[in-house]
Design goal:
Layout (H helix, E strand, L loop, with lengths): L1 H13 L3 H29 L10 H18 L6 H20 L8
Helix pairs in contact: 1-2, 3-4
């Protein structure tokens, strides 16, 4: 599954095959977004749990900023340990923001 794809991406990156590595990593992420998120919504509906694909300002902003960060880091097709550290820190910041974020009482 996805673990094998990510392991292959790491191996290709180690062998300095960045184009293949980026293709695997980004393609795998797109598969998750296009399949797992809608599947979770449908399963939630079947279980009687109200879920929707209506993302609010916080979620949309976090997603857009993450996409911009990945685009800026990967635009030249070269890797460096500092770029990897920047992406890991971006991940930690987004995770902390979601941990401390509280939805407003009125979500409309």
């Amino acid at each position: 599954g996805n673990a094998a794809e990510h392991a292959a991406a790491i191996i290709f990156a180690y062998r300095n095959k960045m184009e293949i590595s980026l293709g695997i990593a980004v393609g795998s992420s797109i598969q998750i977004v296009l399949f797992v998120v809608p599947l979770c919504v449908v399963v939630g509906w079947a279980m009687g749990q109200p879920m929707s694909l209506d993302f609010h300002a916080f979620e949309t902003t976090a997603l857009v900023l993450s996409c911009i960060m990945v685009a800026v880091v990967t635009v030249d097709g070269r890797s460096h340990w500092l770029k990897g550290a920047m992406l890991v820190m971006c991940y930690i910041i987004v995770a902390a923001a979601y941990w401390f974020h509280q939805d407003p009482a009125d979500m409309s």
